[in-house]
Amino acid sequence: MSLQSDYRIRGYSMSHGQPAALLNLSYDHDSGVYLNGVAIVGRDREDSPAVTGVVENIGYARRLSSRTSADVGVVHSEYFQRYGTTGTGRYTEAYVGLTSAHLSSRLSYSPDYFRHGISTLYGEVNGGWETVAGIRLDAHIGYLDCLEAPRRHRCTSQYDWRLGLSRQFGPLDLSASLSDAESKRNLFYQSPDRAPAFVVGASWAF
Amino acid sequence: MSATWRSIVRAALAFVAILALDGARPTLAAPVASVEPATPEARELLVMLRLSADHYRPNASYGGAYGDQMTRNARRRLAQAIARQYGLVLVDNGWAMPLVGLDCYVMRVAEDRPVEEVVSQVSHDPRVAWSEPMRLYRTQGRYDRENDPLFPVQPAAQAWRLADLHRVATGRGVKVAVVDSQVEVAHPDLAGQILIDRDFVSDRPATAERHGTGVAGVIAAKAGNGMGIAGVAPGARLLALRACWQGRDSAPSAPTVCDTLSLAKAIHFAVDQRAEVINLSLTGPPDRLLAQLIAVAMARGISVVAAFDPSLPKGGFPASEPGVIAVAAESLSPSPPGVYSAPDRDVPTTQPGDKWNLVNGSSYAAAHVSGLIALVREGRPLGSKALLVAAQPTGGLVDAYATLFQASRSCGRPCAMVARNESAR
């Protein structure tokens, strides 16, 4: 379970700049198959808590060596507009990833990225390093390449980045991050105009 | 600087300050029992939980991330539940060994219950990969005299013609893992030879210890430095991995022992660090976890050398493992089939306190062979075979000169030199 001051993906807020709670369930089978489900809880039009997004994921991971693992999978994400009741932003991505002790990379393809007919390829590299006093430094850089889009949509590519610090206190993980994207506006999904965003959060693994 | 940036910087600084302030305090963690000194009667068992491969997880961290925190917590909770169910005390917070896909937990059994019975019960739990008792291993070294002057001639200098070997190879750059007690890294004959010094023994302070320091000296003491001895492979670099500890008694006869988990941690680390030779101058009972790790090491082309103890079945574990180079004391004659032998008596070597002393035992015979393999491996890629030449096809007294000569046949100028020396004799 997590609490975030803002739920952001690829440089843009998916919670309209508002705090969000996330409930995460995960299952790993001995065969390497894994399942994940996330429910994102924000505030609805009456300012009451409501589910504002869901993410479902299935994948298969295999250890290539003591340092590296590879995985493939599919993830479906759906975000509900804050004042709406229907799913207004959704996409499904197939991905392949590679992870080592400190670095991971992932390549994701979506045939309908938030809008029907917009196909995209997203590549990302993530790093994580232990520093002093148990503080972990995380870094992310991603590039979204628009492969094809209907005429009524702009087909544009953009990068995003994130730097984060986190520290674990038993089952509690505190984090803070700074993130941004290249374009001021999310061209694929209606979200507040981006600005460098500082996000704090707490996760509780139980 | 805009107001947005100023507020971001302020918030970030405040966050870092909070984290740093907390750094002085210990991290909150599941209750951990204190560890009693392990003895042959230790009432501990190892519980192996399966370790899944790292993979992507959608979560609060920017939409998703790779990381093991969630599963680490889940495994710890599972270990706690298993400990509760079987009436055990969880002793540590687990040690992940991705080489063999396991997370290893130590649990303690109450005095009134047989350890083997609990091991059997836990092993049948479907949540557990397997369980086994914590076993103890002993090094195979003895000390003749305390504070004796350095014996002027090393056995290997004569029997192995060390000076000639070093004209061909010194083991330059070869990484040899000494899985043993604490090596005195600042010893004048070892300083600069240690690439990594790591302690895998819990709750026992690491001070320089006799056995590890002695084994390290036989393998890689500096040559030509005007003091002490010359290691068999003075160009090799050592991974000094403390997995054993010297008995509290300061007498030279005090045993040096290791347990399953400390050995497993050290071997895992050695493989992960791409050591080319792993020296295990110790013996004990067979163990599944250690056998798996040794198998992984050998599958990666690492030479694993172990001391042979004639008083134990098949020479004791890990010498009994297929593929492990078992080395007996030269004074044990004849060697059983498949077992090599090397100098073991009155071997001068490095000792804690900037000293040298004479040592005996198959521990040091194994160390000689580890050094020889480092010579053979010089300049060769990891995974290449290091075949020993011995008195018999299946083992016996190692002929170091022939071993290196055989390995060097395609090495050009050094081979020519060896050949000349050979014909001169």
Question: How would you describe what is shown here?
Answer:
- The complex is a heterodimer of chains A (206) and B (425).
- Chain A has 206 residues and is an all-beta fold.
- In chain A, the strands form 2 sheets. In chain A, strands 1-4-5-6-7-8-9-10-11-12-13-14 form a 12-stranded antiparallel β-barrel. A two-stranded antiparallel sheet of chain A has the order 2-3.
- Chain A starts with a strand and ends with a strand.
- Chain A is globular, with a radius of gyration of 17 Å.
- Chain A contains no helices and 14 strands.
- Chain B is α/β, with parallel strands linked by helices.
- In chain B, helix 5 runs antiparallel to helix 11 (413-424), helix 6 runs parallel beside helix 9 and helix 7 (260-272) packs parallel to helix 8 (288-299).
- Residues 11-38, 143-149 and 411-425 of chain B have low confidence and may be disordered.
- Helices cover 31% and strands 22% of the residues of chain B.
- In chain B, the strands form 5 sheets. Chain B has a 9-stranded mixed beta sheet, with helices on both faces.
- Chain B is globular and about 60 Å long.
- Chains A and B meet through strand 2, strand 4, strand 5, strand 6 and strand 7 of A and helix 1, strand 2, strand 3, helix 2 and helix 7 of B.
